[in-house]
C-alpha cells in the first residue's frame, strides 16, 4: 500500500510541477503587456484572457499536488489536538462523504461542459472547432481551459484514493505515514533550523561539561603517582 500511495503522490507531484510553469508564462505575458502599454501606448488584446487561462489552469491542476502535501486550508484548531487514529477516522469519513462525490460530480458535469465548448464553430464549419473568448477581440480559445476542469477533478479523485489509503494505514499503525516533501514554508524551515541549532548547542554543552569533569580524576591519579614516587625515593 505504501508503494501505491507513493506512486499516486509522484503522479500528482509531476502534474503540479508541470503546470507550475504557468506562473512563468503569466509573468512574462504581463511584463510584455506592461511594457507595450505604458512605453509604446499599444496594449495587447489578450492580456485579460491569458491571465485567467494561465491562473485557472494552475489553480485547478495544482489541486491534487496540494492534497498530496496536505496543504489545503483546514480548520484544524481542534483536529490537530486529537490522536492520529481519531484524525484518520474523521479524514477518511470526510473523504468518502464529500471529496469522492464532489470530484465525481465535477468529472461528470465537467465532461459535458467541455464537450459543449468544443462543439461550437465560431469560424464556421470550415474553421477550427472550439469556443473562443467573448471578452476580447483577439478571439482567444477557452475550450482547452474548460477541458481542464474534469481532468483536474479526476486527478484529485485519484489522489483522494491515496489519502484514504493513508488514513487506513494510520488507523492500523497509530501514526501518519511520511509524505513526500519538496517545498517548505519559510516559517517551518526557520523553526526546524532553530531546533537543529538547539540540539547542536545542547550536545556541545554536554561535551564541555564532560571535559570539565574529566581532568579531576586524572589530576588525582597524578598526585598519587607523585606521592608514591616520593616515598620510593
Number of discrete helical segments: 8
Number of strands: 0
The rounded distance between the terminal residues' Cα atoms is 79 Å
Give a quick account of the main beta sheet: strands, pairing sense, barrel closure. Answer: none
Please bin the fraction of helical residues.
Answer: over 70%
What order do the helices and strands follow?
HHHHHHHH
Strand content: under 5%
Stretches with pLDDT under 50, minimum 5 residues: none
The domain tally reads 2
| Radius of gyration over all CA atoms, rounded | 31 Å
- Helix/strand/pairing category: mainly alpha
The average pLDDT score comes to 86
Oligomer: single chain
Name the overall outline.
flat
Which features would summarize this protein structure in a list?
single chain; 233 residues; mainly alpha; flat
Describe this structure in words.
This protein is mainly alpha-helical and 233 residues long. It has 2 domains: 2-183, no CATH class; 193-232. The chain has helices spanning 2-19, 21-38, 47-61, 63-68, 84-119, 143-173, 186-213, 215-232. The N and C termini lie far apart (79 Å). It contains 8 helices and no strands.
Amino acid at each position: 500500500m505504501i508503494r501505491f500511495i507513493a506512486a499516486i503522490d509522484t503522479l500528482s507531484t509531476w502534474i503540479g510541477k508541470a503546470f507550475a510553469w504557468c506562473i512563468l508564462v503569466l509573468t512574462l505575458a504581463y511584463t510584455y503587456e506592461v511594457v507595450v502599454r505604458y512605453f509604446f501606448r499599444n496594449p495587447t488584446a489578450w492580456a485579460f484572457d491569458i491571465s485567467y487561462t494561465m491562473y485557472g489552469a494552475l489553480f485547478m491542476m495544482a489541486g491534487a499536488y496540494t492534497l498530496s502535501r496536505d496543504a489545503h486550508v483546514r480548520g484544524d484548531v481542534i483536529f490537530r489536538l486529537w490522536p492520529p487514529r481519531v484524525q484518520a477516522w474523521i479524514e477518511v469519513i470526510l473523504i468518502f462523504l464529500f471529496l469522492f462525490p464532489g470530484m465525481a460530480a465535477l468529472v461528470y458535469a465537467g465532461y459535458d461542459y467541455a464537450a459543449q465548448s468544443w462543439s461550437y464553430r465560431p469560424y464556421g464549419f470550415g474553421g477550427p472547432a472550439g469556443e473562443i473568448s467573448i471578452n476580447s477581440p483577439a478571439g482567444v480559445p477557452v475550450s482547452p481551459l474548460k477541458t481542464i476542469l474534469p481532468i483536474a477533478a479526476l486527478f484529485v479523485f485519484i489522489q483522494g484514493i491515496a489519502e484514504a489509503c493513508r488514513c487506513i494505514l494510520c488507523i492500523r499503525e497509530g501514526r501518519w505515514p511520511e509524505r513526500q516533501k519538496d517545498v517548505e514554508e519559510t516559517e517551518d524551515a526557520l523553526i526546524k533550523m532553530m531546533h537543529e541549532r538547539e540540539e547542536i548547542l545542547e550536545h556541545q554543552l554536554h561535551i564541555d561539561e564532560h571535559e570539565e569533569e574529566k581532568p579531576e580524576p586524572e589530576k588525582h591519579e597524578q598526585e598519587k603517582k607523585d606521592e608514591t614516587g616520593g616515598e620510593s625515593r
